[in-house]
Amino acid sequence: MDLYVLVYLLSIIIFGFGSTIIWRGNLILIMLLPASEFLGFVDPMKFAVEGAFDIHALLSLIIFLTILVSIHKLKLLIKSPFFLPISIFFLFWLYGVIYPWVSGNSSLFYSLKASKEFLTIFSFVAVLLFINTKKDIELGWKYLIGLGIYYSILEILGQVFGPILKDNMSYQMRREDLFFWKIYAPFWPVILIALYKSYYEYAQGVSKPFIKLGLSAIGLLLTFFRSYLLAAFVSLPIVLLIYGKGISKTFIRTTLFIFAICFCLTIIALMSFTISSDFASINKIAHKFVFSAVEEITTQSGGSLIGRKKVSESRENMLEKKSYIGYGFIDKESNLGKSVRKTIVDGNLGFIDRGTLDIPIKFGNIGFIVMVLNILFIVYVLVKINKRHENEMFKTRCMALTAVSITYLLVLPVHAPLTYSYGLLPFGISLGLIERERILLLEESK
Fold it and tell me: 49 pairs with which residues across the strands?
């Protein structure tokens, strides 16, 4: 085991679960460091034990230990307005682990192993029970937003220093077209959180975080997840309307955001060194980042959709056999996993590129409906608690997570943020910080 791995593990002991001397907000850092592969400078295999342990197992262990040492504050969870949706997530997890085992499709070990990523949603419980003070909450948000800004800066630097970063970082990278580099940063939806929070801070008049807003907007563009960009265009105005900002204000603020995106596209065009006097390169880049995605959706054509359709056909055939109840968490080495290797493309029953397929495969079509309703209920709770408090920063955080929730629902046809850790961990941490702050605000008002 390398020295920096030992230093990290020692830091967990130093910060101490239950310590009142060190800021408990460092729990967020303890989770985000391995999640981000130590900002891209540590090979995740340094923590791995083949076939048994990996980064997700480490995160699950941290979450479990944190909950365990804070179990005496469990009443905070029981009294929380998010108790019902987090309980539903727990029932999903329990079903996904137990059902494959009792049906003979998997051993208990393999179903538990396959559930590691889903377990990261319970970071909500760990954050809620462990963090105590307003200072810790602010520190937690700084870590979360800071990682989003770091990823955004990395995306920008990657377009200039792509080959150097590829040789010196743990992140996978590849050429995207002639001029761009795509960086596969883990847990990248922290960029979404940074973008939405910055936008609503500006829209609410809380602050003028133009640098953070600009960086995170460019960062989102350079992830090349066009579905999330289009979902952002939809989510931002919907949230403003939900929170009662009126049609005129929503139109103005959304228009400003669109202009900001256009400005970011111009910056990206300049970065590619292909801009011409007639702005042809800007049109080309706008088509690549935005309009091509619209075209694919409206015509149901294009390489991205065709590729997903081809890969998903065998999984859809399997789903037809258990369309109502699904299969639970199936590891590639389980009984079912081994039996479908020859018929399933890439040998993995899970399918991260389509939530509308991945959720039903795990929990059935009934589970898919319950999952969507569960996220909508979280949106309802966020709106409800937002209206009960006057703290403007708290309001922007509720609005940001509402936008993330809606975005996750909108991208389900092409991505699976509700069953995989890259979406669930940032979501769970953010929700935990919001709920802990809500409790503190209530205590202050008494």
Answer: 53
Range in 32-41, 57-66, 191-200, 275-284 the model is least confident about: 275-284
pTM: 0.88
288 DSSP 8-state letter: I
> Please, what is the Cα angle at 433 between 430 and 435, to 5 degrees?
110
Measured distance CA(376)–CA(382) in Å, rounded: 10
From the list 199, 89, 87, the residue with the least C-alpha distance to 148 is: 199
Both structure tokens of 128: 């809620």
CB-based contact 213:260 (threshold 8 Å):
yes
Q: Smallest Cα–Cα separation from 172: which of 349, 302, 354, 45?
A: 45
Residue type, 296: E
The answer to whether the Cα torsion of 21, 10, 147, 438 is positive or negative is: negative
Q: Are 234 and 254 in contact (CB under 8 A)?
A: no
For residues 70 and 20, is the Cβ–Cβ distance under 8 A? no
Helix runs in 290-420, H state only: 292-299, 303-321, 335-339, 355-387, 392-410
First to last CA, the chain: 51
The two three-digit tokens of residue 218, written as one number: 């460019």
Instruction: Please identify which residue in the block is written with the tokens 């699976």.
Output: 416
CA distance 213 to 197: 9
Stated length of the chain: 446
Q: Residue 66: which of 146, 148, 4, 132 has the closest Cα?
A: 132
For residue 110, the Cα-to-chain-centroid distance in whole angstroms is 24
CA distance 280 to 211: 27
Rounding to the nearest 10 degrees, give the CA dihedral for residues 352, 354, 360, 366: 130
State the CB neighbour count (10 A cutoff) for residue 229.
Answer: 20
pLDDT at 353: 76
Residue 123, token pair as written in the block: 């970071």
For the ranges 20-34, 67-81, 204-218, 262-276, the maximum mean pLDDT occurs at 67-81
CA-CA distances (angstroms) from residue 381 to 75, 80, 434? 19, 10, 11
Task: Determine contact, residues 183/173, Cβ cutoff 8 Å.
Answer: yes
Q: What are the helix (H) ranges across 344-389?
A: 355-387
Distance CA 298, CA 309 (A): 16
Quickly tell me which residue has 């995740």 as its tokens: 44
The pLDDT-based confidence of 249 (bands split at 50, 70, 90) is low
